[in-house]
Structures are given as C-alpha cells and as structure tokens.
Write a structure and sequence with these properties.
By secondary structure, this protein is mainly α. It contains ten helices and five strands, in the order ααααααααβββββαα.
Length: 232
Amino acid sequence: MEAKKPTHEEKVKKLMNELLDGVVSVFKDECSCNVSDTARQLEFSEAKTRKLLITAGVRDNTVYYSSGICQQINELYSQGKSISEIMKATGLGNKSVQGYLPYTKVVYKLPELTAAAKRVRISRSRQRLCDRYTTYISGMSKTAEDKFFWETLKKIAGKTFYITDKKGKRIPFTYSINARSKLCIDKFETVLCKKDIMSAYHNARDPQSMPVSDDISKYLYPIFSEMKIRKA
C-alpha cells in the first residue's frame, strides 16, 4: 500500500514546530537567552523572535521569554479579556498587544515558513561547526587543518560575531568571503587577505608563531573564540 502523503496542514505544523525548536535552541544555546542577539543571528525582527519564544513557551508549558508587560497581557488574555480590553488596560496599541501573545494558529504561508525554518537550520549548522571545530581537526596534518579551517570560515560566513569597543559596548558584525579569498567585515568596510588570516590562525593555535596586528586580531579573535581556538 502506498504511504499516505502528509497533508498541507501536517507539513505546516511540522515546520512550525521545527521553527519553534530551532529558535529556542539558538536563544538558549547560542545567545545566552538574549532576544536581540537571537533575532540578529536568525535575521528575524525582535518582535517576531519574541512572539515565537512566547509561542514555544505555551507549547512546552515553560517560560522562555518574559517581561512585566508580557506577563500582564497574557494574564489578562487568560482571564478572557478581549484585545480591545487589554489595549485599554495597558495603553498599548493592537499590534503591540498582539506582539506579546502567542500565535494561536500558524499564520505563515508554507513558503515563508519553509524559508524561516531553513534560516534556523543554517544558523544551528554554523554553530555546530564552531562548537565541534577542535574535535574535527584533532589528528589532522597541518596542511589538512589549514584547508579545513578555511572551508569552515566559508561555511560559517553570515553568522553574527561581536567586538567590544573602548566603552565596553558589544558591537555585532558579520563577514563574507569573496571570490578573491578576501574576508570582508560587513558594516566596518574592513577587508582581510587570506595570508593575514592564516597567520592569525597559526598565532592563535601556537602563540610562539609570528604575532599579528591588533587590527586583524580585533575581528578574527571573536571568530576564533566561537570556534574554541586557543587565543594568544
């Protein structure tokens, strides 16, 4: 007997659960329960990220995201108050109130949901590469390790990293690698060549090797730190 194909509704439900699981994972495991960092990592809006975390919390009977206004709105909603009544009680507009309530149904169209779930998969895949990097290179020859390092850099391109300015503020950045093997730091318009990157990598792996400039290490060491590479 031919296996029954999943219905549209089943596909949507499965993808929605995958999306919720992924957002919670990135929120807890990669972003230290920081909504802003999670949104940035997944390229979602903060409002969307927050609403997905609230929805996952209701599904899992736990709390992933909470704030005073979030608790107030959900308590009023659980008491049977209408959106209009909650708006009046909180002084917030309809959109703001809705933003603190869980999704009661899947409002995404299948293509949009598929794209969102794919984005989460990519983010989690990048993080796994970082987390397991030192395990992967264990026992490799220097030549093989250098090649694997460069390929890993390409695969995790697009992930958000952070530098700290003189005032101690964390500033996010991403990077891309172009066809000429140059690493381009987005936002800061900084370009690093492969030779300098490899020197910095060898320095991080072996502090006795040639030192690198502060400008290079400024951007590369946050990446190396995520990859659990020893810093000089």
